[in-house]
């Protein structure tokens, strides 16, 4: 059977896929999204042992049914199979995950009509942290929304828009209320730090499948799963949790061999993160629900990429847990020492990694040296010893990727990040090769709130403190201004046109998938758990559309000039620095306003000169100050 052929004629609605194989077992029909009935055969290769199977997520045991003929499915099914010798009882059988084959068959009708009370799953999840009682379980898709033909059509199309990630595991691994570190459910005992932390670090064996409409992704691997995140683990605040996926030899493979994020991404992964959307999401506990866009974090990473910097790869996916639709997620790299090695080369043990101001991997020596040199630069600058400050700045180049640092700071200044830098940042450096620390956008969700938010003078954490010390150096300050001119003028990454282009590119990836997220979680704060205030029914056409309009019509068109004003007031750029103007463009050394090029301009020296082959500088045209880089 050709593993990549389209099987529409056989009733397959979507997705190209291969045949899942483990322990010599294979399935005749690949994983995918289906519209019509399928018939599946299971083969154990040369093994003469009977094949036992399950359809509820459990690893097969000797007491489970034996496969003896092809099976027909017309609804979502998670099929797991293992060859088990005769004569073994459940009590004496020790399942080996590498010998278990898993495949997921998703059916459109099953997803759209996903019930509120699936058989075998609890009606309550874990204990609240801030409130009394347990979190009410929520499984169903909202039929009030899906009963509308237009909404239902878009939701159906939305299921085709993103790759599918299917996590299959024993239901008890997720939802067992048994208070036991070996058998308790990770969705019940979330390990939220604000409570007693019970459940934190628990990992359970599972299968992960990743497949997409184009057949670019066609993956099945056994793995371990655990919950991931900080405040998003608190059941009161958020019912839709993040997951960490780990690949270990005990599960079958120590690395996932797949290029998940395009041609320039790594081809091997020790771990991945399935990031939920917590801040500015429809299930959030507060008023941020009204500003949900599901693109803030991705915008920061994509902007870092467009600036030519290293960044943490991610993409949107639909997540399914034991065949149940769980919503839209970001499948993301996990930036640890293995990630550093895969992206930047060298051995993982050569890397020092800091997260949220604390050492995560490696050693602290070079970070402490970096902070010490920054202090020296500050002292020499205060004493007006520019040459000594510049000599220290040269030393800093071996400890900090300075331009990366400046660009990273500018992203957070522009976005008005209010949940940073005392948290939510990552920096890494190769100790052996002596490279400078690089700073990565991570968990950048609390952005784009108020047009006039300003954090340019904040000193909450180590990054802003270092930045303000460095800004006392006239050489660093000029370097910062150069980066401002690169990114805030002439189509740079932080100009209105560029920011809106990035925003619209991200929106085009999820414009239909949002209807599935809405059907899954848009009613949670209205109908399931109101927390402290009753929510509404949140949809792409109502609250989402209003916030999108605010950003595109009010925030993004004005934010660049607001940022420039904030930088001027703080003394970080000259007061007479030009404003950003969408009507102005620079092409081949010639200034255009509204698409027309005036014959002459006023030069930096005040002389009228021809508007052609202009060298770098600030020019006056019809009362506008215009920067030519």
Describe the structure.
This protein has a 7-stranded mixed β-barrel with strand order 13-14-15-16-19-21-20. Strands 1-4-10-9-7 form a 5-stranded mixed β-sheet. Strands 23-22-24-25 form a 4-stranded antiparallel β-sheet. It has 15 helices and 31 strands. The protein is globular, with a radius of gyration of 27 Å. Helix 3 packs across helix 13, helix 5 packs across helix 12 and helix 9 packs across helix 11. About 25% of the residues lie in helices and about 25% in strands. By secondary structure, the chain is an alpha+beta fold. The longest helix has 27 residues. A hairpin with a 2-residue loop joins strand 20 and strand 21.
Summary?
The protein has 629 residues and is of the alpha+beta class. The strands form 10 sheets. Strands 13-14-15-16-19-21-20 form a 7-stranded mixed β-barrel.
Strand order across the biggest sheet? 13-14-15-16-19-21-20
User: N- to C-terminal separation?
Assistant: 58 Å
Oligomer: single chain
Runs in which pLDDT lies below 50 for 5 or more consecutive residues are: 1-18
Question: What would you call the shape?
Answer: globular
Reported for the largest beta sheet, the result is: 7 strands, mixed, barrel
């Amino acid at each position: 059977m050709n593993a990549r052929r389209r099987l529409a004629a056989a009733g397959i609605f979507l997705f190209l896929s291969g045949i899942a194989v483990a322990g010599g077992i294979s399935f005749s029909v690949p994983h995918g999204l289906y519209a019509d009935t399928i018939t599946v055969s299971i083969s154990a290769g040369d093994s003469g042992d009977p094949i036992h199977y399950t359809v509820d997520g459990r690893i097969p045991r000797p007491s489970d049914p034996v496969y003896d003929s092809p099976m027909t499915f017309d609804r979502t099914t998670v099929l797991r199979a293992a060859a088990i010798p005769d004569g073994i009882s459940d009590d004496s059988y020790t399942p080996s995950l590498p010998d278990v084959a898993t495949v997921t068959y998703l059916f459109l009708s099953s997803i759209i009509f996903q019930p509120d009370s699936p058989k075998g799953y609890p009606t309550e999840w874990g204990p609240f942290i801030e409130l009394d009682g347990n979190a009410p379980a929520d499984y169903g898709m909202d039929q009030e929304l899906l009963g509308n033909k237009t909404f239902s059509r878009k939701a159906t199309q939305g299921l085709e828009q993103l790759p599918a990630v299917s996590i299959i595991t024993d239901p008890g691994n997720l939802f067992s209320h048994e208070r036991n570190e070996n058998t308790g459910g990770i969705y019940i005992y979330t390990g939220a730090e604000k409570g007693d932390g019970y459940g934190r670090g628990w990992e359970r064996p599972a299968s992960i499948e990743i497949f997409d409409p184009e057949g670019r992704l066609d993956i099945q691997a056994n793995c371990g799963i655990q919950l991931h995140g900080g405040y998003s683990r608190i059941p009161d605040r958020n019912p839709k949790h993040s997951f960490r996926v780990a690949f270990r030899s005990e599960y079958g493979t120590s690395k996932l061999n797949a290029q998940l994020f395009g041609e320039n991404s790594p081809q091997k992964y020790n771990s991945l993160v399935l990031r939920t959307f917590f801040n500015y999401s429809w299930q959030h506990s507060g008023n941020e629900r009204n500003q949900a866009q599901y693109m803030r974090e991705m915008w920061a990473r994509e902007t870092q990429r467009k600036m030519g910097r290293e960044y943490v790869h991610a993409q949107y996916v639909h997540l399914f847990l034991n065949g149940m639709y769980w919503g839209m997620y970001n499948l993301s790299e996990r930036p640890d020492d293995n990630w550093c090695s895969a992206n930047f080369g060298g051995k993982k043990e050569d890397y020092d990694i800091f997260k949220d101001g604390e050492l995560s991997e490696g050693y602290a020596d070079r970070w402490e040296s970096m902070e010490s040199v920054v202090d020296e630069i500050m002292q020499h600058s205060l004493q007006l010893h520019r040459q000594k400050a510049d000599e220290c700045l040269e030393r800093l180049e071996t400890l900090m990727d300075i331009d990366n640092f400046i660009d990273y700071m500018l992203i957070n200044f522009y976005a008005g990040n209010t949940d940073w830098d005392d948290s939510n940042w990552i920096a890494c450096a190769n100790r052996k090769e002596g490279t400078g620390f690089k700073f990565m956008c991570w968990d950048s969700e609390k952005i784009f709130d108020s047009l006039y938010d300003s954090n340019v003078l904040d000193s909450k954490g180590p990054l802003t403190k270092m930045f303000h010390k460095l800004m006392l150096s006239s050489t660093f300050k000029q370097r910062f201004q150069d980066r401002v001119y690169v990114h805030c003028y002439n189509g740079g990454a932080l100009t209105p046109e560029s920011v809106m282009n990035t925003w619209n590119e991200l929106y085009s990836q999820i414009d239909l998938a949002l209807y599935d997220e809405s059907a899954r979680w848009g009613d949670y704060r209205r109908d399931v758990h109101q927390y402290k205030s009753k929510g509404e029914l949140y949809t792409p056409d109502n609250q989402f559309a209003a916030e999108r309009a605010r950003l595109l019509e009010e925030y993004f068109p004005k934010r660049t000039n607001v940022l420039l004003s904030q930088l001027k007031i703080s003394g970080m750029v000259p007061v007479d620095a030009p404003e950003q103007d969408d009507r102005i463009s620079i092409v081949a050394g010639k200034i255009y306003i509204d698409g027309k090029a005036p014959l002459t301009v006023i030069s930096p020296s005040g002389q009228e000169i021809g508007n052609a082959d202009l060298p770098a500088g600030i020019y006056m045209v019809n009362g506008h100050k215009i920067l030519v880089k």
